[in-house]
Amino acid sequence: MTKAIRIHAHGGPEVLQWEDVPTPEPGPGEALLRHAAIGLNYIDIYFRAGLYKLPSLPATLGMEAAGTVLAIGPGVTGLAPGDRVAYATGPVGAYATERVIAADRLVKLPDAIDFTTAAAMMLQGMTVQYLLRRTHRVQPGETILVHAAAGGIGLILCQWAKHLGATVIGVVSTEAKAELARAHGATHTLIGLANLPAEVKRLTGGAMVPVVYDSVGKDSFTASLDCLAPLGLMVSYGNASGPVPPIDISLLAAKGSLFLTRPSLATYTAKRTDLLQTAEELFAVVQSGAVSIRVNQSYPLAETAAAQRAMEARQTTGSTVLLP
Ligand code: NDP
Hints:
Quinone Oxidoreductase, Chain A, domain 1; Rossmann fold; 2 domains; seven-stranded mixed β-sheet; 30% helix
């Protein structure tokens, strides 16, 4: 048997149950892993609440973990029991001491990256890689606007963007978070959404920004559009405050021939070559010291409900791991 956090129905954190489930056998193309550390991500809350659809219930939640290969199924090549690996692209099932997953979703870990760091950074760090290097290729000298700048994605994004030579304006909810974002590469910080476009205008000398990275969604969407320079790119990549309602696309013309994208890590890492290259770039910036991974909270896996409550209540900063 293995231990897992499962849900039988969508709802609040109280639906997360600590249960015994049979240890699965790896089928063709699959590997059985023993998790050493599991990453907590905001997407886990969307799946729990029902905003994102699960294939069936009951379900073990969780998208990201690091650990050791215990066994491989028929046809798996390039992977052996004992290998240190991590993953971040689902399907759900990471909130467990052991799990089976398609071997082609696994990335081998460099010796210098420990399991806790890996579980804290794979999903958030690979997301930052595609946001800064592919969705919009951030250039030295650019000023960019980043929401939730002290969060898991936020602290990685601020450091990586600074490393690329960009100036980051970070939006956060408290002065303590503002200080943390500045300590991790944000040049300017703004607290709350009030007067956001006017503040961005002031900080950019009227130029506004070429790109906004917005993970807050409903509450910030319109203000974010108003912070863009003509032909700017709105990257709406999350819904921490709720999903963005449908919009009238003529707004994009009225606000300056803007571009809008709603990207997801799953698309950007669907091909194995993209997954490996994304992970490799992440490992490189972490190993060089340009980006450090802040594991600011850790919880026993059995206490995942408390971890999710803290994340939803905006009490977490940086990354959070769950320990089996
Ligand atoms: P965070 O650690 O950033 O936590 C979410 C943060 O959002 C909070 O700390 C809070 O920061 C901010 N926030 C703003 N409004 C609210 C609200 N009403 N309720 C709760 N939080 C709010 O989480 P992650 O780093 O795990 O994820 C960040 C975002 O990125 C999420 O929206 C997630 O869905 C998205 N994401 C998208 C991916 C993609 O590929 N599209 C992949 C991975 C993550 P503050 O208090 O400073 O406002």
